[in-house]
Amino acid sequence: MKKKIGAITIGQSPRTDVVPEIKAVVGNNIEILEAGALDGLTKDEIDRFIIEKDDYILVSKLRDGSSVKFAERNILERLQKCIYELEDNGAEIIVFICTGCFPDVFKSRKLLIYPQKILHSVVPKISNNKIGIFTPVKDQIKQCYEKWSESGKHIEVVSASPYGDIDKIREAAFSMKEKDVDIIVMDCIGYNMKMKVMVREITGKPVILPRTLVGRIVAEMFD
User: Fold this and answer.
1) Helix, strand, or coil here: 163?
2) 7-65 tens-digit pLDDT
3) Which Pfam families did the record assign (predicted)?
């Protein structure tokens, strides 16, 4: 019998742009169940979310392929409902397919896995001094500096959305090349393997892709 893991997107499920690449890593003996914090909402309803000055900003994708920006606090209750749904459907662990920093407010009978905690535990340990970060939008740059600077490393951040023109990611990669970092983190679950390879080829630096890193950890847990 296949093991079941739950995958929560902060956008809308299914994440056909993300889950297949995770599935390729975890293998065929694992079934991935999906739930989305914005499931059941229209674009107009999401656009009515209010973002205030000090909000923690998140970016994700809707089922129609468009991207949206909103405050983390807008979806906390909806994320809890996703956890309950996945537990009821038999998920043995639950993975947030988002690299955002979430507060410790969720209740679950199962193990919750946060990519952000994995990234911030691993990357500083394998970097000499200077870490490069890709983040989707300019509104997230300040919060990226604040969180990643807790590592004690020198941080460089560029913005380029995984949900827009890939040429913007290419431009950001050339900008990052000039900063001569030790290692690069593409700090959003929306960045894919094609983008990773392009950034690595342009910069000549090692690149960490959250979706496949988390997939490898899940595979290790159930292999």
Assistant:
1) coil
2) 999 999 999 999 999 999 999 899 999 999 999 999 999 999 999 999 999 999 999 99
3) AroM (PF07302)
Q: What is the Cα–Cα distance from 155 to 119, expressed in whole angstroms?
A: 14
SS3 122: helix
pLDDT of residue 223: 81
> Where does 57-160 have alpha helices with state H?
76-88, 115-126, 141-148
For each of the domains in the chain, give its residue range(s) and CATH number, in order of start: 3-115+212-222 (3.40.50.1860), 117-209 (3.40.50.1860)
Written as one letter, the residue type at 54 is D
Residue 206 in 3-state DSSP?
coil
Structure tokens at 57: 């900003």
Cis omega (within 30 of 0) for bond into 14: yes
Tell me which long-range contacts 73-76 makes (C-beta under 8 A, separation of at least 24). 74/49, 74/50, 75/10, 75/37, 75/38, 76/103, 76/105
